[in-house]
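Bench notes, afternoon.
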Amino acid sequence: MKRLLGALAAIMLAFVPTAQAALPLEAWELYRQKFVMEDGRVVDDMNGAISHSESQGYGLLLACLAGDRTSFARILAFTRTELLIRDDGLAAWRWDPNATPRVTDVNNATDGDLLIAYALNCAGTAWAMPGYTNAARQLARNIAKTTFLARGSETWLMPAASGFSEKDRADGPVINPSYWVFEALPVMARLTGDNSWLKVQATGLKLLDTLAKANMPAPEWMSVKAEPRPADGFPAQFGYNAMRVPLYLLRAGLAEPARLAPFREAWANSPAIVDVRTRKVVEELSDPGYRILVAAMACALDGTAIPQDLKSFQPTAYYPSTLHLLTLAMLSERYARCM
């Protein structure tokens, strides 16, 4: 663990994500026109047209990567007014335009909070706006205070303030590996001066490496009460949420071949939802936003060129479209040779 923390400290010093038009403005405009409302609400059209802290965080990050200050400010205004309403300074996760009140679940979702903080820091750095940076710092401190669970040498990122702890569940603590936005963690450590963020990073990587040794792609919900295993009451699947894990590793520069091997094997034929116990395909996925994840791993590990049809962007549904843009931005910055 000490060796891994040392390596992560080096990453913290070396990795400062650039935000200067990493995302082509024309691609962002297509996304913005379809998914970002005039009031700054980012719509999840795969989930009943609701919005959530994740969609707002992704919208903020993509706006920053595209250099769109106006849209960033609009998305942030909605986020602050409608979601950042909890006493602990975190965001309520679910907002439904067809419900009264609009917030239908005031619990937070830690990945959404982390994306918002990371995007605020991105904007504060890119545009020399200390107000955004200060807001990112405070939100990061709130995340650490409310959702970090220290146990021995490990520090776990809990999915929410309530519902997943040992007190809440017989198999608790329960975590979600896809909530580790790896590129953001060392940035939060540097921003706050709190090295527990690096312990969260190390714990997440140790978990993924343990799963890789068992040739298991990360399931979405895992009990870490004893040996990590799929959590009770959830499908034991490498599913829609978990498919972000290899992308987050790639974006953070942590895509070691052994760590990515289970994901590549699971997607040997095409992107899919996979049962992690039987390794059987539950659902094949054909959207370009999913297919580019497979292509990105091949690019990073083998130098394989990205297929021509995946280099351009046309919005489909919110989630795969978001993954598509995040991958294109990452490829442009890190793997231009494959483009």
